[in-house]
Amino acid sequence: MSAEQSFNRWVRIALTLFGVLLVYFVLIDNYAPMTPQAQVHRPVLPVAPRVAGQVARVAVSNNQPVAAGDLLFELDDTDYRLALARADLQQQLAAAEMERQQAAMAAIEAEIEQVRLKAQELAREAARLERLHRLGHMSVQQAEQARNQARQAQSALLAVEARQQEAEQALAASALAHEQASNAYEQARLALQRTRVKAEMAGRIGNLQLQEGVQAQAGQPLLALISNELTVIADLREKSLRHVTTGTEVGVVFDAVPGRIFDGHVSSIDSGVRHGQQTADGLLVQPENSDRWVRDAQRLRVHISLDEPVPALATGARATVQVFPEAGSWLHGLGWAQLWLVSQFRYLY
């Protein structure tokens, strides 16, 4: 074989290999995509006190695992205990005032009943004397006196009923004051309780730099609580997601665990990215200017749930994700072989 024939032969082999690889990458990227742009995600909760105060005690250490409800740190509660005591006294005074108004109300109601009975009795007496006067058995003066006494009793009844209305208003005001005092007591009790900051979820303390003596402000994060819940997020090109839906099978290789492939499935696909969000700021739209012939492909975020236990990986740990939309096809086998090779290369990098 001449040198020219040998050269032509190698050119044909290279072109054939290039064509095969081109077809392979097109098929695998469209029907079984893989991305190294994936990482472990654990929700991180910034822990902040709901009241202000000086940190009196830190009950945890850095990277310590905690359960929901465990004490994280305490604030100096001296002022809050005094506030609770004052609120308790105000509540007791308001309760005593409401009881006094209730007793006064009961006394007025009893007085009204007596005045009403007396007014009814005098009205009946006046009516009886009026009949006797018409029959000539009673003088005009006696009948007039009976009528006057009935009118006075009715006026007294109206006066007592007016006092009853005032007592009802005073009782309602005392009830409102008691409710306000009770709310103030509850707020003081909650403020005292909130000086003990506890974990809202199970997790691990991260980047702890909190020290005793720090003056904490309400709502100011003082430490981070990393959740035990683990998901994997992967960024894939738009065209690679045409055959990917919720529940699609995936394989995951973690850089921290080389040589192992973990099974999972797609739990959700984000419906947008920040570049597609426009703010109504009153300004005109500024189109993106680019002179590139082939622009960068847009990537969408895919959320993956693992179907098997994994080691305690840190949030942000890198991973490679292989998607298997065509389950049972020969592309599934190619994708699995591709991912297996990546898992072996993780020993080196």
Helix content: 40-55%
Number of helices: 4
Q: What is the arithmetic mean of pLDDT? A: 83
Q: What is the CA-based Rg, rounded?
A: 42 Å
How far the N terminus sits from the C terminus, by CA atoms, comes to 43 Å
Reading side by side through the largest sheet, how are the strands ordered? 1-10-13-12-11-14
**Secondary-structure-derived class:** alpha+beta
Into how many domains do the coordinates divide? Answer: 3
Please tell me what the overall shape is: elongated
Major sheet attributes: 6 strands, antiparallel, barrel
Helix/strand order, N-terminal first = HEEEEEHHEEEEEEEEEH
- Give unreliable regions as ranges: none
Report the β-strand fraction as a percent range.
Answer: 15-25%
**Counted beta strands:** 14
Task: Describe it.
With 349 residues, this protein is an alpha+beta fold. It has 3 domains: 28-43 and 229-273 and 298-349, Elongation Factor Tu (Ef-tu), domain 3, CATH 2.40.30.170; 45-75 and 196-226, RNA polymerase II/Efflux pump adaptor protein, barrel-sandwich hybrid domain (OB fold (Dihydrolipoamide Acetyltransferase, E2P), Beta Barrel), CATH 2.40.50; 78-193. It has helices at residues 3-31, 78-134, 140-193, 330-345, and strands at 34-41, 44-47, 53-58, 65-66, 71-75, 196-198, 203-206, 215-216, 223-227, 231-237, 249-254, 262-269, 299-306, 318-324. The strands form 3 sheets. It has a 6-stranded antiparallel beta barrel. Strands 2-9-7-4 form a 4-stranded antiparallel sheet, with no helix packed on it. Strand 11 and strand 12 form a beta hairpin. The longest helix has 57 residues, at 78-134.
